[in-house]
Amino acid sequence: MTISEEEAITEERADLLSRLGLDVQNDATIGRVLSTGSIAEATERADGTMEATIRIKEDEYCWDPAILVLPHGGDLELTIINDDKNTHACLLPNNGGPKFLGLLNHSKGKANITLDGPGYYWYSSPAGNDEGRGLTAAIVVGGEVPPEARLDRPKQPRPSKSIVKEIVKE
Question: Do the beta carbons of residue 82 and residue 55 sit within 8 Å?
């Protein structure tokens, strides 16, 4: 039996989701990630700043990657490219308030943001009906909450990956 190219891509995606802890609840995320779009990891420079490039492809109304994974909280330098024939925008999450970047057709911009806690951070293009057409995406920040931000309560039990995977299979 041969595996089609589409099945191979699906398997690669499944392996990547599993490796990053995005395929089960209570691991890298509270819930599962939407099953559309591409996934990429930010690269970390020697100074600790992370960097990544995201783009809007022509006539696709989606961010590429749709899910950007950061290994931990910190500073992120984003290069944002609009390859589309239409004007879009990028409203990004950031500690201290969101950052806005206007993107004329076939343009490029940079944004420096800080996301210091683990979790999902959603971003979109608030121009026109871009969000309604699907121009939304997520930045997933891994890692643990810093000790000074933790709630003063007993440690809560978390299911292990193996238990959660068994439950999901059923």
Answer: yes
pLDDT, tens digit, 9 for 90 and up, residues 71-80? 999 999 999 9
Distance (Å, rounded) from C-alpha 23 to C-alpha 14? 8
pTM of the model: 0.71
Please classify residue 169 by burial: count the beta carbons closer than 10 Å to its beta carbon, then call 0-12 exposed, 13-18 middle and 19+ buried: exposed
- Please choose, from the candidates 93, 70, 64, the residue with its C-alpha nearest in 3D space to the C-alpha of residue 22: 70
Residues in the chain: 170
Q: What is the DSSP string of 99-132?
A: EEEEE-TTEEEEEEEEE-SSEEEEEE--STTTTT
SS3 12: helix
**Domains in the chain, please, with CATH?**
38-145 (2.60.40.420)
